[in-house]
Write a structure and sequence with these properties.
CATH superfamily: Skp domain
Strand content: 5-15%
Helix content: over 70%
Low-confidence stretches: 1-22
Largest sheet: 2 strands, parallel
Shape: rod-shaped
CATH class: Alpha Beta
Amino acid sequence: MLLWVVVLGVGALSLINFFSSEPEQQKIGYVDIDRLFEGFDMKNELQGKLELELKTKEIILDSIVYKLSLAKTKAEAPDATDELKWNFQQQQNYFFQEKRGFEEFSMNRTQEYDQQILKQMTQYVADYGLENNFKVILGKNSGGNVLYGDVGNDVTDDALEAINAKYQGI
């Protein structure tokens, strides 16, 4: 009999506890992807590196343009030989080839850096979510993944601070 009273008492307490306890709050937030991307230190670092790489290649192109200009002047002279005209054509072809290569390099390097940045940023946001007990962190951008989010759920600033600290090794 005492055993039944204890079992019923424990059961009753369990039911009371179950119905009276608040469910675990689901922490949901979102980040503004564009703001996060623009403020990420890695993006700024790689953008500076890209600008330096492009500036170096632009100097080379400028040098080719200067030589091409000299060759053009000689090729258009009244006493220009066929060799000077041929030399100008060769330099012009070389310039167009280098310019195409520069444009491809610029596009490819930009895509490569953007992929590296997004991959690292995504990992850091996932780490931030785990460390701060989020169930979900959504990405808001101009593409419309999140059409509305209460500003209280916008964790962009906190996430940006966390990912930059993680990137800097802090």
